[in-house]
Design brief:
Number of domains: 2
CATH topology of the largest domain: Rossmann fold
CATH class of the largest domain: Alpha Beta
CATH superfamily of the largest domain: Formyl transferase, N-terminal domain
Helix content: 25-40%
Number of helices: 6
Distance between the termini: 12 Å
Structural class: alpha/beta
Bound molecules: 5-O-phosphono-beta-D-ribofuranosylamine
């Protein structure tokens, strides 16, 4: 068991970051959130971090719109290292991370995706599942590799798709499971009792 030093990257509401903070406060996850970075200046995730007294910063990612690269990536790595982060938690971070960040934290960047990968990578996984006519949808927490939403899977949770679902109601049902799945995946990492064999994360 090793206490995790987390650095959270987000762009939005920060409800997943909140679930991690709550698990730590409840004593069910041995970790500390060292810093929160957001690529949107007024992202709610920053306000949440401030409320909890967690150091946080806006990360200017210009000129890129969809990725974390160049000077912004360097600055991100610098801030994470300076804060003593050992595990990077992507929590609604709407940018593709590049090899620089992955090399700085080998096998220590995790992401949450609102679909049962490998189905429906990319944006709005829940809408893709609904439009496809799936009867089951869900969430995946995975290590990040060089692809988009392709890394080894740590935890998955499923939810039913109801006939009267809208994208909003389905996303809300998935988010309930997200908030269980992320602390669970981080507990696996904190336990140290796992190994990555090819695509498989073998736990225990
Ligand atoms: C979640 O649905 C997550 O799976 C996706 O973006 C959303 C972020 O929500 N990657 P929040 O900012 O954690 O509330």
């Amino acid at each position: 068991m090793a206490k995790l030093s987390l650095g959270v990257l987000g762009s939005g509401a920060g409800s997943n970051m909140q679930s991690v903070v709550d698990a730590i406060a409840a004593g069910t996850l041995d970790a500390e959130v060292k810093i929160v970075l957001a690529d949107v200046p007024d992202a709610k995730i920053l306000a949440r971090a401030r409320r909890h007294g967690i150091p946080c910063r806006y990360l200017d990612c210009a000129p890129w719109k969809t990725k974390l690269e160049g000077k912004a990536e360097d600055e991100c790595i610098r801030l994470l290292k300076e804060a003593g982060v050992d595990t990077v938690v992507l929590a609604g971070f709407m940018r593709i991370v590049k090899p620089g960040l992955l090399a700085a934290f080998p096998n220590r960047v995790v992401n949450i995706h609102p679909a049962l990968l490998p189905a429906f990578p990319g944006v709005h996984g829940w809408t893709q599942a609904l439009d496809y006519g799936c009867k089951v949808a869900g969430v995946t927490v995975h290590f990040v590799d060089a692809g988009t939403d392709t890394g080894p899977i740590i935890v998955q949770k499923s939810v039913p798709v109801m006939e009267d679902d809208t994208p909003e109601t389905l996303h809300a049902r998935i988010q309930v499971q997200e908030h269980i799945a992320y602390p669970e995946a981080l507990r696996v990492i904190a336990s140290g009792k796992y190994r990555i064999e090819g695509r498989r994360v073998l736990i225990g």
